[in-house]
């Protein structure tokens, strides 16, 4: 899935993304906080969120604790079972070291006619605290398991291109 990438830039930060992805802004997004979804043709989505670094630092203290909070939110979601942390690494993003976490779990989908269905998923997330821009950034994706290694490479490539300041 080696794709041609182009740069998306807004509010003083940028990220490279595959040209075949469609970009959707959260209508409530502002310079100070917001999120963007990158929609791929086969319904896979990557997300980029940002917000006020001072608020994140008051709430979490460190970027590592911020990343742990994100994992715990997924783990405690009512429709998540069998949560397992696969890896806890770091990526160099711009001039920052950002925690890069991968976890797998089963998402329970309840349908009116189909009953309960277990969907195996893999969550990827990278967190960055940027003092230069006074913002935090989170790049994350929930991927279906099975043959998705190309998406993992695309995720890492996108995250590494984030320019936060």
Keywords:
3 helices, single chain, alpha+beta, 21% helix, seven-stranded antiparallel β-sheet, two-stranded antiparallel ribbon, 165 residues, Protein Transport Mog1p, Chain A
Can you walk me through this structure?
- This protein is of the alpha+beta class and 165 residues long.
- It has one domain (5-160): 3-Layer(aba) Sandwich (Protein Transport Mog1p, Chain A).
- It has three helices and nine strands; from the N terminus they run βββββααββββα.
- The chain has helices spanning 53-60, 63-76, 149-160; strands at residues 5-10, 13-18, 22-25, 34-39, 45-52, 80-93, 96-111, 115-130, 135-144.
- The strands form two sheets. Strands 3-4-5-9-8-7-6 form a seven-stranded antiparallel sheet, sandwiched between helices. The protein has a two-stranded antiparallel sheet with strand order 1-2.
- A hairpin with a 3-residue loop joins strand 7 (96-111) and strand 8 (115-130).
- Helix 1 crosses helix 2 (63-76).
- The chain is globular.
- The model has no long low-confidence stretch (mean pLDDT 91).
Number of domains: 1
Beta-strand percent range: over 45%
What is the CATH class designation? Answer: Alpha Beta
Can you give the helix content as a percent range?
10-25%
> Which parts are unreliable, with pLDDT below 50 for 5 consecutive residues or more?
none
State the end-to-end CA separation.
Answer: 29 Å
């Amino acid at each position: 899935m080696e794709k041609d990438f182009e740069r998306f830039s807004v509010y003083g930060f940028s990220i490279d993304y595959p040209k075949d992805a469609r970009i959707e802004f959260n209508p409530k997004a502002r310079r100070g906080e917001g999120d963007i979804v990158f929609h791929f043709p086969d319904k896979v989505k990557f997300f980029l969120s940002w917000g006020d670094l001072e608020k994140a630092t008051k709430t979490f203290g460190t970027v590592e604790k911020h990343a742990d909070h994100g994992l715990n939110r997924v783990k405690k979601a009512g429709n998540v079972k069998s949560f397992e942390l696969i890896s806890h690494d770091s990526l160099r993003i711009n001039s920052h070291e950002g925690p890069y976490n991968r976890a797998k779990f089963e998402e329970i989908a309840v349908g009116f006619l189909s009953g309960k269905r277990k969907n195996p998923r893999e969550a990827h997330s990278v967190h960055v605290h940027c003092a230069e821009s006074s913002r935090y950034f989170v790049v994350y994706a929930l991927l279906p398991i099975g043959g998705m290694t190309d998406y993992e490479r695309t995720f890492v490539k996108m995250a590494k291109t984030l320019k936060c300041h």
